[in-house]
Every structure is written in C-alpha cells, then in structure tokens.
Design a protein that fits this description.
InterPro entries: Beta_helix, GH28_Enzymes, PbH1, Pectin_lyas_fold, Pectin_lyase_fold/virulence, RHGA/B-epi-like_pectate_lyase, TAT_signal. By secondary structure, the protein is mainly β. It is built from two helices and 33 strands.
Length: 395
C-alpha cells in the first residue's frame, strides 16, 4: 500500500472509559470529482453515536482453572516462561477453562510464542507482564490465536522486544495475532513496544482458497502504543467491535498508523465499529481505511496529533464518521481519496488540522456540505461517489 499525502461497559451494562485512556502514556482541491454518482451532499440517518453502553459477550468455556505458576512459570523477569505457559494451556480439558497469570514479569520467547486454544480465558492480573525476549526475527507473535474459537484475553501488559531487538529487517513482530478465529474477546490490557503491530486481527490460510477470516471479535479498554508499524492492523474479519481504546505513537516502519484496515488478497473487513476510542501521536495517519474496508463506523472518537492526516479513506465502502473530534493533525483532518463510496461525515468537530502549513485562527462555525473554508479539515481527491457531508462543527 502506497502512502499518499495531500498536495501541499463492562461486565454488566455500561462501562465507563478507564482513566488510563484519559491520561495514557502516551494542497489543492480538484476542480471536479469525475465519475461521482448521486448527490455529493445529502442528509441521511446516522448510526447511534451514544457513549459506550455494552455488555461483554459471553464466551463458551469449561470451569477448570489452572495457574501458570503450577506449571513452572517463574514470573521473575529472568527465566524463560514460554514452555510453562504452553504446558498450562495444553493441560486444559477438551471443554477448556481459565489460565490465571499472577503478578510478575514473564519472559516469553516470542519466536516460539504462546498458542491459545479454543474455549479458554487467559486471565492476567493487572500487574502481570508478558515481556518478549530480545530476538532478531523478522516476525513473531507473542500470543497466537490461530483458527480457534471462544477465546478471551484480559488484564496486564504485553511488551514486545522493540527496545532490545537485535535484527534490522522485518515488520511483523506482533503482540497479539488473532488469525482465522471466532468469538474472541480482548480487553483491559496494555500492549507496547512490538517490532511490528500491537494487535493484528486477520485471516488464516490467507494465500489458500478459501482463506479463513476472523469473525465476532470484541475489543475493549486496551491501549496499544509505541509499536513500530501499527497499533492495530485489521484484515479479513466480519463483525469487529472496538470500544474505549487507545491506538497511539506508532513509529518506525511504514505505514506507521494507529489503525490500518487493509485486507489482503481481495478480502473484506466488514462491519467494524470504533466507539469512544482515541487515536493519537502516530507518525503517519491516525486511521487508514483502505481497499476492502466495508461498513466501518467511527463514532465518538478523538483523532489527534498525528504526523500526517487524521483519517484517510481509499477505495472504502460504506464509511460512517460521526460525533467525533478530529484535531491538530499535521495534514488534513479527513482525506477522502480515490474510490471511496457511500461515505457519511456528520456531527463531527474539526480544528487545528494541517498545522504543518501554519495555524489558522477562525471563529467557531457549523456548516453542511463542503467549501474551501474547510479544506484543511476535509479534503476530497479522485473519483468517488455518494459522499455525504452533513452538518459538522469547525473552529
């Protein structure tokens, strides 16, 4: 994918955003839009963009509980605990169960990785940390969720080997890789310093026919920060919901986005929701919705302080950006590119964008549609159709 720059609730009912999300560590407009079908600007209903109010999905698993310490895990930050984790997981009966990880720092050989199985919950204590051992590999997966179902991962920290990595090539060293799996929950954890991405949600058997996409994936209350390529990469998936999470400070290997939705091999990322999320401080785009993105909703999110555009759509279908704040990005706040179809932008607040060209002071105003007055905030370029920019707010 080529980077294109602009021309010069919890367990019961509601879950409030956690405090670590509030204080986390972190041009010329074309004269015509050739080939546009239907009205450029039109009012229409938008998705419900209320504050997050959800119930954690139920995942099927047995009642067996195992503690990784009982299988030899030291959690002392020195010993290699990879085999102990795998032994604990493999000891679960067919019905599955829960693996508990007490407080401590557990060194994991990410090149081998820890493979999760169906019908299990990997339950980390809040002060438990899985830390990748330094390696030179181009690719690794610290936690690998491959072609399984009914899996939950919660709590603690996952730390990659970025600061100690001994190789120079590759961009695929990931914290959590969900691949061709269904009914997966990832919540209440912090992922950082991976050689590639903090999280990947995509397909298994990608280059075979047919590939196995992931489906019914639920992410809530996570921070993914200071990873080298992306905070989260999203490939072939059906029904992904992400709430109350932060994707920040990606830097080091292109595309360097907070969120990259980029299914490969002609597949689709379908029905993806971001609600109450923060996307900030990434070296390039905050969010990239690329070819194969279909039915993506960005609701009540903040996209700010990114090193290029805040949000970019290209060859994306059925995109809804509503009730969000897009501000202080180095380039255009929202860049709608070639091939975008059925895109609605409503009830958002834009300001401070394209500050690489200097700041602009203006009185607050609202407007429906597009004019050169807002080209720092919203830019459209290329052939597209059914772009609906209704009332938004600017200052």
């Amino acid at each position: 994918m080529k980077i294109i720059e602009p021309a010069q609730t919890g367990r019961g009912t509601a879950m409030a955003r956690r405090d670590f999300l509030r204080h986390s560590i972190a041009i010329a407009l074309p004269a015509t839009f050739a080939g546009m079908a239907g009205p450029l600007f039109a009012a229409t209903a938008v998705p419900n963009a209320a504050v997050s109010n959800y119930t954690l999905p139920s995942r099927q698993r047995g009642s067996t509980v195992r503690d990784v310490r009982d299988y030899g895990a030291a959690g002392d930050g020195a010993n290699d605990d990879t085999a102990a984790f795998q032994a604990a997981i493999d000891s679960l009966p067919e019905a599955g169960g829960t693996i508990t990880v007490p407080a401590g720092t557990y060194r994991i050989d990410a090149v081998i990785g820890v493979r999760l199985r169906s019908y299990m919950h990997l339950k980390l204590a809040a002060d438990a940390k899985l830390a990748a051992k330094a390696n030179s590999a181009e690719r690794y997966n610290l936690l690998y969720v491959n072609k399984v179902r009914d899996v939950e991962i919660s709590g603690g920290q996952i730390v990659g080997d970025r600061n100690g990595h001994t190789g120079t090539s590759g961009e695929w060293g990931h914290g959590i890789f969900v691949r061709g799996s269904s009914n997966v929950t990832i919540r209440d954890l912090h992922v950082s310093n991976c050689w590639g991405d903090g999280l990947v949600i995509a397909a298994a058997d990608m280059w075979q026919a047919p590939p196995v996409g992931s489906k019914n994936v639920f992410v809530a209350n996570i921070v993914s920060t200071n990873n080298r390529r992306q905070a989260i990469s999203i490939g072939y998936v059906n029904d992904l919901k992400i709430y109350d999470s932060e994707f920040s400070n990606s830097n080091g290997a292109t595309p360097q986005c907070g969120v990259d939705i980029e299914p490969e091999n002609g597949n689709i990322a379908y029905k993806v929701l971001f609600e109450n999320c923060v996307v900030r401080g990434n070296a390039r785009y905050g969010m990239l919705l690329y070819k194969g993105s279909q039915g993506v909703t960005v609701s009540n999110c903040t996209v700010e302080d990114n090193g290029s555009c805040g949000v970019v759509t290209r060859n994306a279908l059925a995109t809804y950006i509503v009730n969000s704040t897009i501000r202080n990005n180095s380039a255009t706040g929202l860049f709608i590119q070639e091939g975008t179809r059925n895109c609605q932008v409503s009830q958002n607040t834009f300001y401070g964008n394209y500050h690489r060209l200097g700041t602009v002071t203006r009185a607050p105003f609202s407007m429906s549609g597009w004019s050169s007055r807002i080209e720092r905030d919203i830019l459209m370029q290329g052939t597209m159709s059914d772009i609906r920019i209704t009332t938004n707010f600017y200052r």
